[in-house]
Amino acid sequence: MDVSRLHPSVAPCRPAAVPGTRARLESPEALPPHVEDALTVAQFVATGLIYKMEGVRTERRLDQERPLEGQPQVELERPFVMVPGWTTRPEAFHDLGSKLTEGGLNGGRIVFVRDGAFFNDPEAQVQADPESVPADARVFQVIPKDAHAPPDVVADELERSFEAIRQVTGAPRLDVEAYSMGGLSTRVYLDRGGQAVGRLMMLGTPNRGTRFAELARHVIQRDVRWAMSLGGLTVGDLPALDWMAPVQGDGSSNPRLSALNSRWDEQASRLEDFHAVAARGLLTPAEKGGPMFTEGDGLVPVDRVGPPGVEVTVLSGDKHHRLLNREAETYQELIRFFGWTPLSEPAAPPAAT
Fold it and tell me: How many whole angstroms separate alpha carbon 44 and alpha carbon 213?
């Protein structure tokens, strides 16, 4: 997910520790509709402003530190596929893909795939023949036809893209890093019987939903146009937001995701291994009826990332949802989980001055 559009003019600064104020939203049953609307819109806007400010701060840090430059090059044995989430921009994977292919390694370039067809560019404008894909290509990036499409639609495209990658590489199984809602799309693919994924790492995936989706959905359903404009939302985003709404109680709050979670064991049985990774340290919208904010990556609470019964690995420090793939700790987690072969030792961090 990428809600950095919510307010392009916010000056970068670190927000105060809102959880300490214990600001609360009352149960909607106890509030008149107009009050609930006002509180929901206020939380939506506050989330967007905080997310934008933290994104600016984190991006400046990453631009200065360039953390992946000091990481070891690695050699991949089988294809690695990066699956984006809702509204994910293609450049979200640029640093990671460039690191994996620098110096001509692993095919020397990222191969872009959209709905089973190969492209030379992240905008999927210049189509490439399958024969032009390097024989040693190992790094592939999925480009959805519609970045706002819900998981059940993206899953159809994944089926065709995964099969195309298997055909062009000859690999029976693929390693997949599914980012954000991309984890749900990949799980829907598995739920339908997909067999192409070997190892799956879900990064910042709202496997049990996220309050942000509920807030954004409320704004659209109530036709709060100024808030929709502020967040870059349209009615066309509702199907994806419905999928990502929080799972609560008996699951009726999100029947699609609840049903998908009820079959997690079947999905996992089609994998060689799976891994869920979360981030914490940033103010993240919490469930209604309690504190307005909790810990997470700015969009997905840390306790909402794991599928049922799955232990989650939590990255250290403040990690921003939109920038998770630029972090050295994420890269090290990828190396560990997928068993990539480092060709050198990571560089020592710069000495404090």
Answer: 9
| Band of pLDDT at residue 36, cut at 50, 70 and 90 | confident
Give me the percent of the chain exceeding a pLDDT of 90: 83
> Per DSSP, what are the bridge partners of residue 117?
114
Question: Per residue in 211-254, pLDDT tens?
Answer: 999 999 999 999 999 999 989 999 999 999 999 999 988 889 99
Which residues in the chain belong to E strands, given as ranges?
74-75, 80-83, 111-114, 117-119, 127-128, 139-142, 174-179, 197-203, 273-280, 282-285, 293-296, 312-318, 341-342
CATH assignment at residue 142: 3.40.50.1820
Using CA atoms, how far apart are residues 319 and 55, in angstroms rounded to an integer? 9
φ, ψ for residue 17, nearest 5 deg: -75, 85
Number of Cβ within 10 Å of residue 303's Cβ equals 15
What pLDDT sits at residue 3? Answer: 58
- How far apart, in Å, are the Cα atoms of 274 and each of 223, 251, 295? 39, 24, 24
The label of the residue with tokens 């292919």 reads 101
50, amino acid identity: I
Proportion of the chain above pLDDT 70, given as a percent: 89
Q: Residue 308 falls within a domain, yes or no?
A: yes
**178 neighbors 84 (Cβ within 8 angstroms):** no
Residue 219's identity, in one-letter code, is V
The position carrying tokens 């106890």 is 30
- Structural domains counted in the chain: 1
151, 157 in Cβ contact below 8 A? Answer: no
Range of the domain at 239: 4-340
